[in-house]
């Protein structure tokens, strides 16, 4: 791993108001190096999305530090984000949060291209990005409501990648896609960011996809990372009982599949007390 990571998050904590306050993310640390895909996996409610929103500045942190290429990530406010921080792009689980329903999709992808050009990146075209995500160039004149959920997600991915990010944060980016294209689109995202020397934080509950694209994996449960390490090592020799439970519950004999249903209360209590295993 290089000394200067594109993302260096240390002891990040996120709390939500309540009595007592809800700790959604509890001192989570991870790094993403240039050219690397790092996965964050866990069941719904484990804190994955809260962490993703914190590292891009959408969610306010209650503690810890977030550095992008060695510089602090400022929380998003009313002012336009600094040009250098446009090198951080995020793909949300729901593409409706990033596509403007009143604008043609080609114009929105063109915005990403313009963002990249403003930083001196090489030129590209709307048609090129549409084709890369498996959509015909002719759809550029359509509006978001004319697409299916899976097609909208492809458009959101094209728009984010067109900005030529140094860091792509992808929060469940393929859950809206049909099973036959999930892996191929995830692999495309990995390949494009790697070609650019960028890094990707890929958040998912789909272990099959993570196994194929991630260099390192962090397993999250109850707001904490319980185990982390090279993806191949986690598959071959999981050390935390929660990770072992996830893998043993997958029906496929080669260990492929999705994270199973939520565990029992008794299991949760045991796993929460076992020290984390971090590499």
UniProtKB/TrEMBL annotation:
Single Gene Ontology MF annotation: ATP binding
Alphabetical UniProt keywords: ATP-binding, Nucleotide-binding, Transport
Membership in a protein family: Belongs to the ABC transporter superfamily.
Pfam families named among the record's database cross-references: ABC_tran (PF00005), oligo_HPY (PF08352)
Location of the ABC transporter domain: 7-247
Organism expressing this protein natively: Microbacterium galbum
UniProt-listed PROSITE patterns: ABC_TRANSPORTER_1, ABC_TRANSPORTER_2
Name listed for the protein in its UniProt record: ATP-binding cassette domain-containing protein
